[in-house]
Amino acid sequence: MKKFSIFMLISLIFIISCQGSFIYHPEKSLHRNPDHINLPYESVDFYAADSISLHGWYVPSVRERGVVLFCHGNGGNISHRLDTIRILNNLGFTVFIFDYRGYGKSNGTPTEEGTYLDAMAAWNYLREIKGIPAEKIIVHGRSLGGAIAVWLAANSEPAALIVESSFTSAVDVAKSMTPFQLFSWVVTYRYSAVDYIKDVKCPILVIHSQDDRLIPFELGRNLYLAAPGFSEFVEIQGGHNSGFLVSKEIYTSGLDKFFKSAGF
């Protein structure tokens, strides 16, 4: 019993101290850029409110319907999202995708509060530097970026919000993962999208796959059920990172239908 208690204490200390490494998996090197998919782009440097230097790509569309501000997931960097950029560009949307602090060419170290500051800085860049009106901006987030996107939409006024392969809260994700169920009560990261979404005033689209083994389908569905006002749900197939490609036809048609219903 005593050995078990010591093991539990050590495990608890380890989980508390290493939570950031479980959540964030940044890569610094940009392996590709939109040139590789024949899309012109602008490499952008901008700053968060706490003076952290951030980096992103502004990828214009020839037949622009609007602008998508994309918040990516917890791994890699913007260079791993070229398929997403191409899909959105083909649908007629300019894409502004950025790296959180500590990812790609962005400075600093990722934290929950930092990711919120970074998303708001990207929003302010579009509004203040590019001069794009709020009614032309759609906030779109995938996985961890979904929770960040919900926070941003609750604290700004985008025309629409898309939440893909995401979750209700970081605590709920921990509860769904067998190794961490016992310690879910000590999770210090919140990313409580289910609370933030109550303050979102624009149309909302939630996308999730039944095959997602990383973020359970039920968490995406519960987030959708918590959404106020006009909201839609699109079910896709495929894994957590591949669903939007495995179900490309369903995915793109669902996006296009939602864009039209939101006035684009």
Quick overview of this protein structure:
The chain has helices at residues 2-17, 19-23, 82-90, 112-129, 144-154, 170-176, 193-196, 217-226, 243-246, 248-261, and strands at 25-26, 42-47, 53-59, 66-71, 75-76, 93-99, 137-142, 160-164, 204-209, 231-236. It is α/β, with parallel strands linked by helices.
Chart the SSEs and their pairings:
Elements: H1 2-17, H2 19-23, E1 25-26, E2 42-47, E3 53-59, E4 66-71, E5 75-76, H3 82-90, E6 93-99, H4 112-129, E7 137-142, H5 144-154, E8 160-164, H6 170-176, H7 193-196, E9 204-209, H8 217-226, E10 231-236, H9 243-246, H10 248-261
Parallel strand pairs: 1-5, 4-6, 4-7, 7-8, 8-9, 9-10
Antiparallel strand pairs: 2-3, 3-6
Helix pairs in contact: 4-5
Features of the shown structure:
alpha/beta; Rossmann fold; 10 strands; 20% strand; globular
Task: Give an overview in words.
It is a single chain. With 264 residues, this protein is of the alpha/beta class. It has a single domain, classed as 3-Layer(aba) Sandwich (Rossmann fold), CATH 3.40.50. The chain contains ten helices and ten strands. The strands form two sheets. An eight-stranded mixed sheet has the order 2-3-6-4-7-8-9-10, sandwiched between helices. The longest helix has 18 residues. It is globular.
Query: What overall form do the CA principal axes indicate?
Result: globular
CATH class annotation: Alpha Beta
Strand order of the largest sheet: 2-3-6-4-7-8-9-10
Order of helices and strands: HHEEEEEHEHEHEHHEHEHH
The poorly predicted ranges are: 1-14
- Tally of extended strands? 10
The main β sheet shows up as:
8 strands, mixed
Helical content, roughly? 25-40%
**Distance between the terminal alpha carbons, to the nearest Å?**
63 Å
CATH level-3 fold name: Rossmann fold
Q: Mean pLDDT, as a whole number?
A: 91
C-alpha-based Rg, rounded: 18 Å
Strand content: 15-25%
User: Which class of secondary structure composition applies to the elements?
Assistant: alpha/beta
Number of domains: 1
Instruction: Tell me the CATH architecture.
Output: 3-Layer(aba) Sandwich
The CATH superfamily appears as Alpha/Beta hydrolase fold, catalytic domain
- Count of helices? 10
